[in-house]
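Q: I'm a student working through a structural biology exercise. My instructor gave each of us a protein and asked us to get a predicted structure, then write a short paragraph describing it. Mine is Esterase. I'm not confident about reading structure output yet, so if you can add a plain explanation after the tokens, that would really help. Here is the sequence I was given:
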Amino acid sequence: MRRFNLLFILAIFFVVFCLVDRSLGQNKQKPELTGFVPGIIPEEATLTISDKPTDVIIHINSPRADLIDPRKKTRLIYFALPNGNSIEWTAGKKMTSEDDWHYDIQHLAAQTRYMRSKLNDFNIITVYLATRQKSWPAWKKAHPGYPQLIQNLFTSINANFESLTPMITLNSHSGGGSFIFGYLDGVSDIPMNIDRFAFIDSDYGYEEKYGHQLANWLKVDKKRYLSVLAYNDSVVVYNGKPLVSPTGGTWYRSKLMQSHLAREFKFKSRTDTSFIRSEALSGRIQFHLKQNPKGLIFHTHQVGLNGFIFSNLSGTKEMNKARFTYFGEQVYNDFINSQPENLH
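A: Happy to help. First, here is the predicted structure for Esterase. I'll explain a few features afterward.
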């Protein structure tokens, strides 16, 4: 009798769960993607916005509207470009003898497609963020009201996908980290729909105040993640001079960020000849700091060697589905297109 009652209760729970799940799915609708044009592969649609008054260039790469499934989770990944890079270079392409070498260092477009191929229960949209100065730190100096400009930017872009209630990742490389800190300068409480911050060798501008913001944000929800990738740039000598100051590089700044977060969260660390790996909150916070005994420059390698994929998935169950290794063999080569990203 007890067994029958238990089975009956479980059956009722299952029916209710299915009805709720179906209702939530029905409340979501396909976005219209107004103004989007076909991408360089048939499955994609793109939109480029060049806002001259604010010096910001936005490029959105989305699955084609009819391929977006409202029943799936939607991941909106903002990626702030490194200093000196164009959107086309950051997206990447198959190299020819006449191409600029920058086309072969990051491959965000191919890494995005790889994630889409492995994570079938997600709609994945990548937003490239660039400036006319080709530098987010320089842009902030040119626009003292940058916190409000960044908030306006988010409002405008998010409106394209609000029917999908997406979760948002703020990601960055190199000087792009300045954009993330600029965003944090404009908010007292980080919105609930942002569930991941990622710094790929990009936390040069880190200060203790940002550590407090991130710690408070991480405490609110067990589905929030922080990924920090850096390498030992403090030992690099370039053209006879140190590449960074003793406290100005990401090696120092990443360790400083971790030390501040360690006041709130207990870290476990392990060290080998390749990395110092530190985790807290069951992997929701991850610092991967690359050792550098030969004083090499690994700045862009951290993105190109699956770093974009890793920084977006670290600490989640989707890591196992994606089947890749950070700083290992490039897993996305089959997804590199022969043409540059379509910026129209």
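A: Here are two points you could use in your paragraph. The CA atoms of residues 145 and 236 lie 35 Å apart. Residues 6-25 have pLDDT under 50 and may be disordered. It's a good idea to check both against the output above yourself.
Q: Great, thank you!
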